[in-house]
Design brief:
12 strands; Purple Acid Phosphatase, chain A, domain 2; globular; binds zinc ion; six-stranded mixed sheet
């Protein structure tokens, strides 16, 4: 199976469309949460994912947008965007989001948004955090999102080795336990403004990262019309 692995789409429809066009042909879409929040087209993003029969999990923004997580824990810009999103969601979108679990196991992979021990809030951004999580899932590989940074933490004996996709953008998945992050479709934060996504091949057991251009100005214009926070509009230009 060829699986498009997407995370942190954040209501960014042009980025999602560009990513899917780049990853085709695929047999399935797996998404790792934060489908909505920040971006201006939450209903359109969910409708596209639903029509593609995407599977996956919920993130902190998704839970907050359906009223199942207190918005007090978010920073001001994130909270403002969530409150805007809550007012925008239609019934179909709300039902689709509310149906997502915090954790799934698909084809021998664990899927969570944050970390296996705390799917809602924990960011896996350091070796120490990866080490604390590496035995907290029952499959060999765990797909995570939330940091908006494409990155792998892989067990090597007693060590945890970080690996970043760059010139080499593909790895082989073997018996070593790993936490694998595809990066963010809708709001990258690693200094590269292009959308980030991953293609997982479960027969070859490979994971390949892609960076994909999309019309950022289109999204920014919609965000301005919706009066979403200026800082959120600006950060898409920088990928930070
Ligand atoms: Zn996110």
């Amino acid at each position: 199976m060829r699986i498009a692995v997407l995370s942190d789409i954040h209501g960014n429809l042009p980025a999602l469309e560009a990513v899917l066009a780049s990853l085709r042909p695929y047999d399935a879409i797996w998404q790792l949460g934060d489908v909505v929040g920040y971006g201006p087209q939450p209903n359109e993003v969910v409708a596209l994912l639903a029509s593609e029969k995407a599977l996956g999990v919920r993130g902190n923004h998704d839970s907050a947008a359906v009223g199942e997580l207190d918005t007090d824990a978010f920073n001001d810009d994130a909270r403002a965007a969530i409150e805007w999103t809550m007012g925008e969601l239609n019934n179909d979108t709300r039902a689709w989001l509310a149906n997502l679990k915090r954790r799934e196991e698909l084809e021998g992979f664990t899927l969570v948004h944050g970390s296996p021990r705390d799917p809602t809030w924990e960011y896996v951004y350091a070796v120490s955090i990866a080490r604390a999580n590496i035995n907290r899932f029952s499959t060999t590989h765990c797909l995570v999102g939330h940091t908006h940074v494409p990155l792998v933490y892989r067990q090597a004996g007693s060590k945890i080795e970080p690996w970043l996709p760059g010139k080499v953008s593909q790895i082989e998945l073997d018996e070593r336990r790993a936490l694998i992050n595809p990066g963010s479709v809708g709001q990258p934060r690693d200094g590269d403004r292009r959308a980030s996504a991953m293609l997982l091949d479960t027969e070859q057991m490979t994971a390949e990262w892609r960076r994909i251009e999309y019309p950022i100005e289109t999204v920014q214009k919609l965000m301005q019309q919706a009066r979403l926070p200026k800082r959120l509009v600006a950060r898409l230009s920088h990928g930070l």
